[in-house]
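Hi everyone, sorry if this is the wrong subforum. Our group has a chain we'd like a structural model of before ordering constructs, and none of us has done structure prediction before. Sequence below.
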Amino acid sequence: MTKNENFKSKITVYVVVCWILAAFGGLMFGYDIGISGGVTAMDDFLIKFFPVVHERKLHAKEDNYCKYDNQFLQLFTSSLYLAALVSSFAASKVCTKFGRKPTILVASTFFLAGAALSAAAQNIWMIIIPRILLGIGVGFGNEAVPLFLSEIAPVQHRGAVNILFQLFVTIGIFFANLVNYGTSKLHPNGWRVSLGLAGVPAGFLFIGSLIITETPSSLIERGNYSKGLKTLKKIRGVEDVEAEFEQIKLASDIAHQVKHPFKELMKPSSMPPLIIAVLLQVFQQFTGINAIMFYAPVLFQTVGFKDDASLLSSVITGIVNVASTLVSVYAVDKVGRRILLLQACVQMFISQIAIGVILLLNLNATNLLTRAEAIVVVFLVCLFVMAFAWSWGPLGWLIPSETFPLETRTAGFAFAVSSNMFFTFLIAQAFLSMMCHLRAYIFIFFAGWILVMFMFALFLLPETKNVPIDVMVERVWKQHPVWKKFMD
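Answer:
Right subforum, don't worry. Here is the predicted structure as tokens:
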């Protein structure tokens, strides 16, 4: 087999069904992201759980930037990501020992439990604990689903298939925004409907986890060679899979020599994919995207929209998010990963600076933006979301899932997931307080990070387009002018 050979495959109905069913893990994650911001903006929810925040919100001359600054309110959102951070390491062990499919089943079970308990909550801790259960589901789902999609996809379509995860995340956010827009009119229990409907994508993921196949890489890694070969033929839709099977088997033999994958990650030769994976997660969160997605209704209320208008504006950003992710599905295997990341940095930087300047000049503690100014802010938010959705959003999950060798793949991806959850937790827990203290400068803060991200992508990020997943070391890391110094 030559290094440039693409393995034979054709796309079958069965493998497409597997892709879609697994990607419901992204739908569940996206729904969790989108639902919390709308719920925390609902008066009925605030009256029941956060009456102090509701009283502050009612004050006519309350500070625009500070009326939602409450640590418990932020904990409602952020607790999910703290739980996901811890559970991702347990998910790594389950993923390696039992496979990707059982890990997805565990995730769906926690999702179902969290959704049911959220809808029945009666006090503040009954609203926090289900978020922790949902967080465990996110930790398991976000560990297993991107790995599953990368391992089951043909090399020439791996980028597009993996981005199905992020596409379903954006669909989940959009669905959550629509739900919140509708349930905000159902008094006094609309928030219960919003939280309980998380059971719908969770149910699809549960059913899907029973239908999908295990990945050939996982089967072969666990010594089930005959089933691995049979599964590989089934998902590739051709009989001639010997070359790909031998490559996976070789990667598995190397993996078996590594008894402690987390210790292996600390070796110099493991540093390039690990550093890239962790920094991608840090930068993904410090674009400011989750601050916008978590708190879009709150943000739009801050800049002068009424409750219904703010929820509708977040629906608009949801549509932009989904449509722009489709651009990435189309482009990622054609133009490559780096071009999308670099272009998006420019667009996001301009958007964040412009939003910051408009708010700095026109929004003080007690006034409102004019209608025209508020519409411009929504347009700039959409421009920002658009760029993120075809770049740092999906590629933040794709690149770490395809760059680790098999022996450290689940352990390395666990670090990526946990890093993502940790910094998502930080942003979710701190954003409303940051907005109170930094005011419009918060957007300048995120713009500064985007500038750093541009330099990172330009000088340190290798291109992985069309490189088979099990030859990344030879074809990518050993060829890169910076990272080759770390390799054996």
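For your construct planning: The chain has one domain: 13-486. The mean pLDDT is 87.
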